[in-house]
User: Fold this.
Amino acid sequence: MDVYEAVDSRRAVRAFSDEPVPREVLERVLTAATRAPSSGNLQPWHLYVVTGEPLAALKRTATARALAGDPGDEREYPMYPDGLDSPYLDRFAAAAAQRYASLGIQRDDPDRPRKIAALNAEAFGAPAVLFCYLDRTMGPGQWADAGMYLQTVMLLLRAEGLHSCPQVMWTVYRETVGRAVGADDGLVLFCGVSVGFEKDGVPRLRTGRADMTETVSFIGV
Assistant:
């Protein structure tokens, strides 16, 4: 798979099979991902790879919290800025409508928040989740580095025939995750990334993207 195919086929999969992901594959991907760009070569990320019974136990605890209507732990950073306006709000709303439809959850379902939280807490059935942390002393530049690192990881996963789903939702259960992985207080949870093979026979969601001309300006070309 060349890089263009990996980029085009990467999407947030929300239905994974229970087929295990071989450890050697994850090690190969994460070794290659060390070449991701990093300003000043700080490499500020720290990843916890959780599989097997530890992941099953974490899913059970998080799902129980979700189904109980637990509002979650206080966020340590905002998921989105306040006051989103067009075109950002339009893109968000369109993608949300697609996502809810693919999950079989109606927008007017009064139990929608709990259902969505529970599906996320199950990591959509993924057999592996990567939890990405940063040192609390890091700033916006290092958070950008972590994003580039995770994009590199997700593209390499595609090269291995795997899919992924980045989930900022895990920050709502950061205390549960922190206990499960043993992260100390000096680290802040950036997100989780569910990893696995896509489940057969489920609707495949591919959200739209803005045309390149909406987000790119050529100067002097």
